[in-house]
Amino acid sequence: MNLCFVTPRYGDDVVGGAERQAREYAERMAAAGNQVTVLTTCAKDHVSWANALPPGESVHNGVTVRRFPITQDRDMTARARVEGALSSGLRIPRSAQDEWVRSSGDSEPLLEAIAATSKTGAVLVFTPYLFATTVRGAAVSPERSIVIPCLHDEPYARFELIQETMRDVAGLIFNTDAEARLARDLLGELPPHRTVGFGFDPAPPTDAAVYRASRRLEGDLVTYVGRRERGKNFPLLLSYITAYDRLLSAQPPVMLLTLGSGSYEVPSVARHLMRDLGFVSTDEKFQAMSASVVLANLSLNESFSHVLAEAWLVETPVIVHAECPVTVEHCANSGGGLWVDSPEMFAATLDRLRVDSALRRRLGRCGRDYVTKQYSWPAVLARFTAAVDELAA
Amino acid sequence: MSSDVIDVGSIVAEIESDVARRRAAGDYPEALLRRLSIEFDPAAAEPPEVLATVGIPRPLMSARPVVGPLIVFVKRALRRSLAWYVQPIAEDQTRFNMALLRDVRRMERHLERLRTVWPPADDSLAARPAAQQVVRSRVDRLSHALGHTAGSAVLLAGTPAEVLDGIVGALPSVLFDRCDDPLDALDAAHPEAFGAVVLAGVLPRLSPRELLDAMPSAFRALRPGGALVLDAPSPSSGSSGPAVDLALRSPVPAQTATLLCEGAGFESLTLTEDGTTGWFTLSGRRPSL
Fold it and tell me: Which residues contact A177 (CB under 8 A, 6 or more apart)?
């Protein structure tokens, strides 16, 4: 199979679920003997879109990576205008949609490379849906293009420009059935599509007691892994933890352990309830999750939610937001987590999990079984290969 | 999928039912919960660049029965009919706001270079048992390093309250001069005013520029033969205390602190590292005449 992945950012240190997914697919398909190329930009972050990496070709983990410079400046005023119009319920004209898309990772040389690659017989796989590399790139040769949207229920998903892109390609690959349902709600009739998901290796061995001693962690822990920002509902989680500690629980205090990055300024009322470890190694991430009573992810913007699966690999149950169809679906299908929609529900659920260790263990084991059976890499790559074969045919 | 999958839906329903019962019984402090949530108001946490965008984010809604949908329809129609007039004004205001913000950010950067507001220590950490162990250890080590200064004036600069109280209690014969902002205190001190200067937990709170200035300032404030004593969490131990003190901006390794003291002219430097708490203590002397 001759595959070409197109993604706005690519690299070991690029943060983002969709970008990580693209890299894992690319490297594992290459390791399985397929011819794999990646076309990407020189940007490392999706805020400034600065050309931080040198253009050119390199080989990384068996994958040929070709980088092209961003050629369109990010127009903050234009973006602000679109955001303002969106928030006032106005329809965004197509020209403004185009301006908005072009200010997110647009690269003319990359589009030329896509055109050249499409003539080699490669199947073009674009991810995620929101950026110029996908919207403009998939329009170059839609009949050879498959999009992995990583769709969220957000205003940009309603841009006609973006919806046309997803309707016109050869096929769509979704991460969950919930994401596919969202796409159907937004687009109506869908092109051929499959649900594949993300793969996971078995977790490394963990020793919660040793880890807790090494980090001087005391008491029960709730772990949060990811960006500490409003888009991931981190302020809401922190407010729930604070309400739990101050007003809603008679149990001893619980500590929110956070892993990742983010610029959210923690209110002083909550600082003593949180300990931030920042970016840690993959091993330590699993250790931290295994040492926790529960992993909490109240994000509403998920197309798969890797952290849930990672928590389940170490048999740690999860608490998710009741209004996120993707994470609720995972919990219901796996039996590995519970969902909440208020601070009172969060408090009652956390109390239950802290007190009922047998329930906690059962939830964790169910989650682990679910991930190892549905989302092992062999299972996922088999589904991905079959999907590409069927959609590109 | 495993045949032992738990019906989590029923567990959630059970918890929901319990919560509803407790809510109906008035078990939850609704007013306090609302007030607490304001602390985490996402709008307040948004950076000004987002708030500077002038829009109309308020959702259109009506709780009136029967006519509610009609009211929402009318409101939406009215909003759209006026958009031709309002939108250009909003865009002009947004451009102005963005220009203003750019200037404000530029001034912030200038101010940052001139002066840094001293972040207060987070005294709420003192309540936790592990924090108290760290405090005891720090007080012991700092007091030991100050043991020779009986009767001398000692400047305790930027020292967290619990550590300060411990040191003062351990050395009743020493004259202590306390201040909250160590940089201000050192700048304002008369030359050669103190027998010792204590900078407890200060170094990680300093910007790089301030770090370079702090040791020479301490040197100037010490009389010949006077002692500088400082402590800080050692970055290699992964320790920043049992909970996050967000005032600790950037960890300073012991080796860096030692080099800074040497560069400022201190001699007889002694470094001790506490493997249990992860803090190090460094002491040195201004050369005697």
Answer: A195, A329
